[in-house]
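Limitations
The structure tokens in this dataset are predictions for the assembled complex, not deposited experimental models. Users should treat interface geometry with appropriate caution, especially where small molecules or nucleic acid strands are included. An illustrative entry is reproduced here so readers can see what is and is not provided.
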Amino acid sequence: MRQVIHIFNKEFKDYFISPIAYIVISVFLLVTGWLFFSTFFLYNQVTLRNFFSLLPLIFSFVIPAITMRLFSEELNIGSYEILLTMPVTFKDVIFGKLLAGVAMVAAMLLPTFAYAITVAFLGELDWGPVAGGYIGAILMGSAYTAIGLFASSLTRNQIIAFITGMAICFSLTLVDKMLFLFPGSFLGVIGYLGADFHFQNISKGIIDSRDIIYFLSVVFIGLYGAHLAMQEKE
Amino acid sequence: MIRVENLTKYYNEFCAVDQINLHIRKGEILGLLGPNGAGKTTTLRMLTGFFLPTSGDIHVKEYSIREDSLDIKRLMGYLPESAPLYHSMLVYDYLDYVANIRGIRPDKKISRLKKLSELCGLSGIMHRPISELSKGLKQRVGLAHAMMSDPEILVLDEPTSGLDPNQIVEIREIIRRIGKEKTIIISTHILSEAEATCDRVVIINQGKIVADGSTESLKLTGNQDYVINISLLNADENEVKKEFHSIDGITEINTVKPDDPEMLSLRLTCMSTDDLRGSIYRKIKLRDWVLMEFHQEKKSLENIFRELTKEN
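Predicted assembly:
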């Protein structure tokens, strides 16, 4: 556990040493801020629902940008060898990196509290769905971070890691919007696979164990995939 | 201290390390020699727990690499080839991070970092990013990384490759200084380096150990004929050859083209059984030849290395 914290610290600090954190946070705030507030006053409703419904799509390209370096960079410069010959296990490494990615997502979401506060000034804001939205965003962020880690473990090229991660996250986000492409008997299963579907449930303020289990399973599958990919490289 | 038993590693079908057995004693400086691709790095990576062997085992003290790799990693400091360190970090931040992972207590950390920066000559570069360092400096940071927890065993993979001669001397100096109290394993393909720093040399080729011993004892292995070079002035080639052929034990006489056309230079190959220098000198003394050079070629590690690692 101690080692997880040290690795987390190092990875999280690294985001702010390099310009990645600042670029990603600015892009995220610009895009969500513009898309949310440009239509906010037309709806004339005091709710953040439109902001949260943007998140799955925006996360699918922002989070792979955060995670792309986590393994690819280590593989590229060879520091993975140095890391793994210190007294740490693969579990320490991957949980440290996962937490650093999730913390980065949280740091990205933090300034958006300003949206909630601004909106609360304009009328009576129901805080239940807002809390649900943020919890859901962190859960979905963890799931996408795990996928990004997996993509990053596949290659030493960060651009390939980014595109692979983005492709997987986009598919998960959009799969429940493409249901008309699938035969009827699969609809239930495929609908259940969609990250957006589960996220919208939570962001309504309903915290259902099925949605939590869904996101945790995606985290597990992503991390396990990364484990297999890294083992394959030995 | 370290016992390697039937160590084997396959990369898919390719056998990189083949049934290596090795015993390393405490306090030894062991040089692992071999041509590129002989399996040196693979062996070291298994030794340091980076990956597991396909078969065979490594015991360090009472630990086995299969069950207690974490304990073994705690005992070892490892510097991989060309010191692959995180580019973006400052030297100080990097060493601080390593100290944390290595479990150095926070109150001892500063004094440990100070000591290491002194030992490895890092005091001037602590606050520079690693990406800006030259190869030699990076290597020194890597060495500090390896020695962070004052480990009993130090494993260095080609610590001097790509350095300039001054830096090589510096790194060797550091290795020798720390080698007084530690077990050190160095891999290299530079023979003079092994000769200069190691107590014991293990030569591997195509994944197998082909020689094992001190540099001195290695020189005694293999073909034992030695060579004497002489240069004479005032001598006729045929006459000289005739004289020397009459000495028992000289198997071959070759003329070497001398720098000075007046001079006659010869290479005499002698059988190992006798020391023939005396008889050669006496032959020369009987004539009015002027002896300009008389030199017995030391059998070099290079020759042994080439002999042992030849493709057959």
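Some entries come with short summary sentences. For this one: The longest helix of chain A spans residues 49-77.
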